[in-house]
Amino acid sequence: MNLLARLKQGLGRTRTQIAGIVSEKGSLDEAFFDVLEEALLAADVGLEQAESILDRLRDDSAEARVDSTRDAWAILKHTLTRDLTVAKPVDEFPPKPWVILVVGVNGVGKTTTIGKMAQEFHERGKRVMLGAADTFRAGAIEQLGIWAERTGSDFVAQQAGADAASVAFDAMEAARGRGTDVLMLDTAGRLHTKANLMSELQKIVRVVRRHTPHAPNEILLVVDATTGQNALKQAEVFHQSLGLTGLVITKLDGTAKGGMALALTRNLGVPIRKVGVGEGENDLQDFDPATYVEAMFGDLE
Ligand SMILES: Nc1nc2c(ncn2[C@@H]2O[C@H](COP(=O)(O)OP(=O)(O)OP(=O)(O)O)[C@@H](O)[C@H]2O)c(=O)[nH]1
Ligand SMILES: [Mg+2]
To answer: Is the pLDDT of residue 14 over 70?
Structure first.
């Protein structure tokens, strides 16, 4: 199954729910907006966001003198695509190594996403290094090591329980020494307390920046789509502490809650870089707003 199909399967429940209300002759009455609101809420777009979308759809439809649900639908898809479009960060790889710090709460898919991205970079002919700065969870170092082996990436680690920032520093040194194109740093999703986690991550950023002022070039937050609106709260905390440059949404293969992408983008103003649609190394795709909206709301007839 190709990736769009997989994304569609995950997000498909949203489409099924609204399929019945969109047609050439369907009129733009309150019943239409009610069903639409329900569908947006079921997709975990969030109440505030859903209301804003409906208000704008009412205004835009009136302005364009649209009176069929099908035409309103086209306007809606256009609006959502625009909402999901955030200016992309600068190009990768002028500075070497390009350093990507990957953060997020436990279990969201950080390590797996690093493995998948390593595979992509590898296929583009890049020399990749993975740094095991999750020194807290038992098994985390080994898990990343396996991904390094699978993807032909260099690997830097210390023993479990070591200082995460010290691992990051070692990795920076090693990457400079070996001419690495892209260094990805894995981090813990949980420490003894949340405050500990944020200060550990901030320390990693400080140490990396002291080593190489332009790094980290990206700070990517990974969120699990199945957690819906909770992801938004997590993202706000991480963004405040670290200044995120991008988001990765995982597990879109198993959820109808893809609407959280809209709230994430609008509230944070941070672009979604990648979406995960499975556990394998090829189950990652670049985020494309139009494709995403099509997967959620396309093909109604
Ligand atoms: N279905 C599906 N599963 C995924 C996806 N991404 C990750 N997973 C699974 O989610 C689980 C957790 O993934 P990890 O990569 O270990 O998550 P993590 O954020 O590194 O977790 P911690 O290191 O404990 O903080 C694993 O079983 C992965 O295979 C995805 O896009 N789709
Ligand atoms: Mg991990």
So the answer is: no
